[in-house]
């Protein structure tokens, strides 16, 4: 009996142990599957941590363009082009800007009128302004033609108090071949020596009395120059290791070694004086403080997190009260828009909390960056942060993206550009957006339905664009007729019948082969039955057709321009885009007669392809913030945003909303006029377009032009670049032995058939 | 050391609890002192149990890091794979039970991969075992340049895999050395890596890479066979063939099992070389199960990949089980 009891006890103990182990395993399993990743709310440390909060201000003066900015403690000096009402033009004005109070005082600077430009300036240690000015001088004959011109460049020290010139030096005495130089950077070291840099030619150093000390030659282009807090001058250059920072060593008359610990940065990079550390480094993505003594850098924030476009940063500085200030510039045809932003460090808990939406994409394009910043500034409930995975050179970025999509770490909004949209749609990664459109009261009839259709699968909308253009093939209408679309065999027949020197202007056998196959891959694969037809006559004919053309193109060979060759039918086709009505007009001019956008060869004769020009968006099916993600998508297809694309002429391509598209067409058809000498109203060109050696003045578009473009935009319903690179790589790799004469076309086709058949079988 | 306590809580004298004290003496002490003492038999048992318990705890302590590692890096991922194999896809995660297994089993690419993997393992593994055993036997006998041969066969192990692949490309490329050699004899070029010969090339590559290691294992096993038994056999006029079959083969049976299992595992890992040679989608005779799993993983078809992995694991367990049974049957008399 005792033995039985013991056994029971043992079994019970074992049972308990088993239960504990199983529970542990289950809990860990569940945690790994469901519990990890981001949570809805920010973690505690982040909540109680310090964050930078932006405060946006208008500049205290109105300027068309600010040419120079120089920080000086809590002040800044700005040289700006402002309207000169007296002379009905523009003049350069220097402002002393009080950054603590956001006020500007105009300084009266002597000899700064007429054709004088300020190239570079700074506030010297003695409190005066030091500037490089250039003056363009010319002589005109009786007809107003310029017969003689010259440019002088001068270094001036100017009193801030009364604007008088204290000292000046003709830079011809300092810089050799001054006529070829353009001084871009000016810095002062701790001893008052001045460093003038003209990009890639050299650094010219003068003492505080403007006497030349030495020249230092440069091997690389200079991307920035700044004086550190310690009183040394550093330059930033790009070399094979990326961006490096080097000290300018006056005693040794050369550049020092690259400063260690400076990470590679890219985009709009600038270096500015710092109060707390050695230097401030700003790039398109982040703002950092650099400590040159320790060779370390500290990231203060990501520009996107404070809703500022890092590409627009003009200057950054630190104020005595600990705030960061910056001026950003947004380009506009009517005059650049400047914004002064103060960034104050606050406890995260003191700042109103927003729900965080993550936008994940391989990279962030300019239009999307702008749209996200606008959304973040205007939306009180959601804030979008950006996760860029990087250019997918080796596939690892897409692999990481895929891993995130299947985990709890998935982005809420997905930038679909350069990703396999159809794969994500078919795997259920993306959310159907039609119900959201309906809920928001958006009528899909207000949008180009063919573009929406391109992002559809089984009647569900898995992606959307705000702006798009068409990629296509152009040919003379007189040769191919006015109908869009052709099959591969029709295209081959056409070329063989007309027997041109080349199919395209710079057509190599690889490019022609790619042209025939890559946007037409479904002609050789039947996904329904899983059969491939690469061993068929059509594919072998294509291989043999492409083999007739040169292996490599000699771009340097002097021959006729593209327009002449197209007009004489030496070249028959041209791969190009339709991003505006003007481009369509130019192409008709280039060909010398009406063109047909016949498109890429395709078995269904649907060869005009849609390409996004301002980001394409999808919502993750696993997102916890689908409503917020949709709010962003809704914002970029809203009437206001779509109209702004036309009115501000921002980005390129066509808006997806029909009403905005018609507004764009209306603008394209509105003629512009000028008055001739006799006072007659004469139509003037709207713009000038060019391609290769061809240039054309573009007049207002005709109704016929607009109808042709509208027809093109409303007929395309396939996405460009939606072919798996695995397939194209196999074809390219195995076609090569045939092109090199090592194998017959049939043998090469056989291997392609064999390898692609596995791909097809695997994906069924 | 724990001492038994009296009812009043007094600590017992040291001798009272000593296991070697005779039972009678203990009884007299018990009478005189009127305290209850556990019998020496029970005391011994209790102490032994405690020791056992303590020993187990210590063992568990030592085992814990490994157990946690195995749990985290083997058991848990395997359970996750089981989970993925039973859902429709990793995004919607709807349970479909065995549908994925049925789907994968009907997939032409999976069948092709399974067939190729089976053919490769069936041809490469026995060759790897037999040839390495032959080489070990050869090097065991007194032949000239013994150490040079040993180094020669071991050298592929030192070559990085990227270099191995490069060498193989130079040899078996369409314009490679093998075809150059054939052209000397006016033979047509063969596209080694894009034809039915592809698997032969991979078998050769596998043998070249693995023979040396297997050979060393066999040499060690052969040298550990008791010399007296071999001498007796020779005195009994046994032929070398009889010595090999009846003595050597039986003594090295456990090594044969080990080498077979290692070769089998390595044969599944030949994907690495094929991938470096021909990428994700090689010629169909080189397409292995790991290609299928790798490709389905990168296309987010985790459910297909998991179902294939589980089927492969089941087959592996069965094969290794059979090998163990075989070894147990043939080698039991020499292992005691």
From TrEMBL, chain A:
Keyword Signal: yes
Membrane-crossing residue ranges in chain numbering: 16-35
Keyword Disulfide bond set for record: no
Keywords: Cell membrane, Lipoprotein, Membrane, Palmitate, Signal, Transmembrane, Transmembrane helix
Protein name per its UniProtKB record: Extracellular solute-binding protein
Source organism (scientific name): Parablautia muri
């Amino acid at each position: 009996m005792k033995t039985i009891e013991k056994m029971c006890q043992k079994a019970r103990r074992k049972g308990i142990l088993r239960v504990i182990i199983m529970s542990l395993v289950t809990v860990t399993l569940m945690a790994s599957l469901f519990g990890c990743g981001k949570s809805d709310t920010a973690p505690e440390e982040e909540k109680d941590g310090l964050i930078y909060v932006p405060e946006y201000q208008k500049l205290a003066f109105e300027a068309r363009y600010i040419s120079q900015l120089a920080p000086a403690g809590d002040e800044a000096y700005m040289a700006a082009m402002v309207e000169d009402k007296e002379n009905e033009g523009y003049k350069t004005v220097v402002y002393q800007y009080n950054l603590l109070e956001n006020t500007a005082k105009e300084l009266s600077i002597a000899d700064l009128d007429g054709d004088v430009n300020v190239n570079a300036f700074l506030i010297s240690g003695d409190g005066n302004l030091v500037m490089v000015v250039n003056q363009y001088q010319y002589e005109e004959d009786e007809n107003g033609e310029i017969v003689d011109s010259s440019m002088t460049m001068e270094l001036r020290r100017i009193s801030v108090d009364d604007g008088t010139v204290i000292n000046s030096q003709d830079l011809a005495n300092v810089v050799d071949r001054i006529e070829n130089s353009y001084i871009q950077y000016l810095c002062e070291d701790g001893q008052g020596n001045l460093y003038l840099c003209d990009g890639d030619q050299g650094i010219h150093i003068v003492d505080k009395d403007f006497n030349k000390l030495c020249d230092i030659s440069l091997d690389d282009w200079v991307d920035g120059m700044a004086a550190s807090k310690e009183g040394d001058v550093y330059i930033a250059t790009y070399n094979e290791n990326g961006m490096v920072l080097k000290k300018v060593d006056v005693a040794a008359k050369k550049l020092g070694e690259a400063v260690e610990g400076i990470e590679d940065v890219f985009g709009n990079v600038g270096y500015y004086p710092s109060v707390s550390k050695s230097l401030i480094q700003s790039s398109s993505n982040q703002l950092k403080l650099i400590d040159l003594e320790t060779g370390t850098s500290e990231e203060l924030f990501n520009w996107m997190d404070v809703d500022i476009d890092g590409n627009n940063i003009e200057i950054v500085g630190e104020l005595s009260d600990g705030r960061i200030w910056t001026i950003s510039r947004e380009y506009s045809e009517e005059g650049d828009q400047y914004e002064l932003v103060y960034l104050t460090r606050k406890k995260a808990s003191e700042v109103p909390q927003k729900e965080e939406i993550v936008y994940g994409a391989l990279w962030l394009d300019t239009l999307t960056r702008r749209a996200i910043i606008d959304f973040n500034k205007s939306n009180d409930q959601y804030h979008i942060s950006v996760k860029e995975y990087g250019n997918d050179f080796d596939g690892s970025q897409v692999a990481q993206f895929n891993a995130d999509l299947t985990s709890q770490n998935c982005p809420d909004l997905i930038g679909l550009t350069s990703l396999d949209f159809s794969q994500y749609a078919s795997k259920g990664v993306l959310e159907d957006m039609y119900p959201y459109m309906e809920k928001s009261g958006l009528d899909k009839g207000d949008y180009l339905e063919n573009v929406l259709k391109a992002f559809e699968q089984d009647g569900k909308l898995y992606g959307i664009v705000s702006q798009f253009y068409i990629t296509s093939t152009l040919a003379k209408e007189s040769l191919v007729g006015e109908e869009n679309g052709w099959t591969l065999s029709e295209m081959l027949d056409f070329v063989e019948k007309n027997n041109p020197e080349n199919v395209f202007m710079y057509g190599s056998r690889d490019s022609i082969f790619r042209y025939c196959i890559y946007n037409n891959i479904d002609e050789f694969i039947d996904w329904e039955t899983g059969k491939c037809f690469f061993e068929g006559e059509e594919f072998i004919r294509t291989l043999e057709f492409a083999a007739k053309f040169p292996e490599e193109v000699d771009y340097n060979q002097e021959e006729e321009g593209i327009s002449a060759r197209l007009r004489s039918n030496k070249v028959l086709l041209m791969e190009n885009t339709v991003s505006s009505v003007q481009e369509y007009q130019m192409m008709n001019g280039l060909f010398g007669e009406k063109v047909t956008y016949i498109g890429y060869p395709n078995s269904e004769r649907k060869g005009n392809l849609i390409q996004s020009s301002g980001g394409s968006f999808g919502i993750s099916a696993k997102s916890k913030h689908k409503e917020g993600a949709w709010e962003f998508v809704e914002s970029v297809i809203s009437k206001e945003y779509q109209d702004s694309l036309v009115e501000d002429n921002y980005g390129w391509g066509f808006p997806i909303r029909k009403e905005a598209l018609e507004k764009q067409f209306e603008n394209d058809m509105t003629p512009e006029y000028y008055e001739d000498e006799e006072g007659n109203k004469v139509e003037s060109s709207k713009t000038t377009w060019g391609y290769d050696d061809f240039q054309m003045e573009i007049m207002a578009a005709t109704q016929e032009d607009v109808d042709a473009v509208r027809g093109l935009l409303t007929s395309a319903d396939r996405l460009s670049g939606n072919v798996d690179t695995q397939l194209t790589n196999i074809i390219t790799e195995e076609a090569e032995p045939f092109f090199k004469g090592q194998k017959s076309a049939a043998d090469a086709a056989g291997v392609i058939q064999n390898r692609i058949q596995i791909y097809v079988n695997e994906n069924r | 050391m724990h001492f038994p306590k009296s009812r009043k809580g007094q600590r017992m004298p040291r001798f009272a609890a000593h296991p070697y004290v005779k039972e009678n003496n203990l009884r007299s002490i018990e009478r005189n002192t009127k305290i209850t003492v556990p019998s020496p038999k029970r005391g011994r048992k209790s102490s032994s149990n405690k020791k056992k318990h303590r020993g187990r705890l210590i063992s568990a302590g030592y085992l814990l890091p490994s157990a946690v590692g195995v749990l985290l890096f083997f058991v848990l991922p395997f359970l996750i794979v089981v989970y993925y194999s039973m859902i429709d896809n990793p995004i919607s995660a709807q349970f479909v039970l065995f549908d994925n297994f049925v789907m994968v089993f009907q997939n032409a690419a999976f069948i092709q991969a399974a067939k190729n993997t089976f053919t490769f393992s069936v041809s490469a593994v026995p060759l790897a075992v037999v040839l390495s055993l032959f080489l070990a036997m050869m090097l065991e006998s007194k032949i000239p340049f013994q150490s040079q041969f040993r180094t020669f066969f071991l050298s592929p192990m030192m070559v990085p895999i990227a270099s191995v692949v490069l060498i193989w490309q130079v040899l078996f490329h369409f314009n490679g050395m093998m075809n150059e050699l054939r052209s000397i004899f006016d033979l047509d070029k063969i596209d080694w890596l894009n034809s039915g010969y592809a698997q032969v090339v991979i078998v050769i590559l596998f043998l070249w890479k693995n023979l040396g290691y297997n050979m060393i294992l066999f040499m060690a096993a052969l040298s550990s066979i008791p010399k007296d038994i071999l001498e007796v056999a020779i005195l009994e006029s046994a032929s070398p063939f009889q010595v090999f079959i009846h003595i050597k083969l039986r003594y090295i049976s456990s090594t044969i099992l080990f080498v077979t299992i290692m070769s089998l595992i390595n044969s599944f890992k030949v994907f690495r070389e094929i991938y470096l040679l021909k990428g994700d989608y090689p010629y169909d005779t080189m397409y292995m199960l790991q290609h299928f799993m790798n490709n389905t993983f990168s296309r987010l078809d985790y459910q297909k990949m998991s179902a294939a992995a589980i089927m492969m694991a089941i087959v592996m367990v069965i094969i290794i089980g059979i090998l163990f049974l075989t070894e147990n049957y043939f080698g039991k008399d020499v292992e005691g």
